[in-house]
Amino acid sequence: MISNNRIAIVNTATTFDDFKAKEALDLALIFASYEMPVALFFMADGVFQTKANQNPEGIGNKDFIATFKALGFYDIDDIYICQEDMVERMIEGELSVDGAEILPRTQFKQTLNNYDLVLTF
């Protein structure tokens, strides 16, 4: 049964390239609203979602990234970002997700392996 499993949602898509990023966030909020333990992981191009001060209105999109501020309200506190992917994409400075833990790739993968259900977007 899913309710007993720890759920990892892995974000690999850029912020506004398609709907994957928004769908991943929506799913995390749905699981959390049913008090299911859920964590967010950002790797590959998904690390672009963690960059602060994005301007989606400039390309005609809605700012769903602002929803990251509500993660704590939903008790989504386990948020992990792959350090090497951030470095490769030159992402530094302020992040859009509060309390995210930036992990080296090896530790990132080890942490991800601790989850029972992994959903990749």
UniProtKB/TrEMBL annotation:
Matches recorded under InterPro entries: DsrEFH-like, Sulphur_relay_DsrE/F-like, Sulphur_relay_TusC/DsrF
GO MF, any single term: transferase activity
Domain of life of the organism encoding this protein: Bacteria
Pfam families named among the record's database cross-references: DsrE
Keywords for the protein's UniProt record, in alphabetical order: Transferase
Transferase among keywords: yes
Entries under PANTHER family matching the protein: PROTEIN TUSC
Family (UniProt): Belongs to the DsrF/TusC family.
Protein name: Sulfurtransferase complex subunit TusC
Organism (species): Thalassotalea litorea
Gene: tusC
